[in-house]
Amino acid sequence: MTSLEYNIGAKIKKLRKARKLTLQDVARETGFSPALISQIENNNVSPPIATLSKIARFFDVKMGHFFEEDEEELRFEVVPKDARRVVSRVISSKGTGHGYTYEALSYRKRNKKMEPFMLTISERAQEETLYNHEGEEFLLILQGRAEILLDDERIVLEAGDAVYFDSSLKHRLLACEGEEVQVLAVVTR
Fold this sequence. Notes:
alpha+beta; RmlC_Cupin_sf; DNA binding; DNA-binding; 5 helices; 434 Repressor (Amino-terminal Domain); 6-stranded antiparallel β-sheet; 3-stranded antiparallel β-sheet; Jelly Rolls; Cro/Cl family transcriptional regulator; 189 residues; DNA-binding transcription factor activity
């Protein structure tokens, strides 16, 4: 399932229009270009998790708002492996590929305090732009070797290694050369 099938862009556009904001207003407040906001709204590109988190915070909604379906409140949710929602075509604000896809592991449960994702990093990104946003993150490397950049630190993580950090730290997860990396990521707002 792509961001188009989630209609992430349409949901962002609806939030923006409901608040009578222009693309420039959203861009100015979030730090992204009006062109990128437009591309996201038109489902031409999928926003990285950090970008989506900043947009959600700006509109004062939980990140899960962009993934949930219009259903009643659930007390629990089971997501079979083949029912995960995949978000692909993730690009950076500079328009370059991130080399990863992410799958939402919970999309029916509303008002969650955590957003669990499965990241698959298929290639090392060309650039090393660091991102930060509100909340906390927990990453567990399930397969492969990755390098995490946390402010000025560079730490290599092997399968089985975990890291927990404040998302306000500038951060980026990169695959080590020639490795496909699978990561369980849990993000809070």
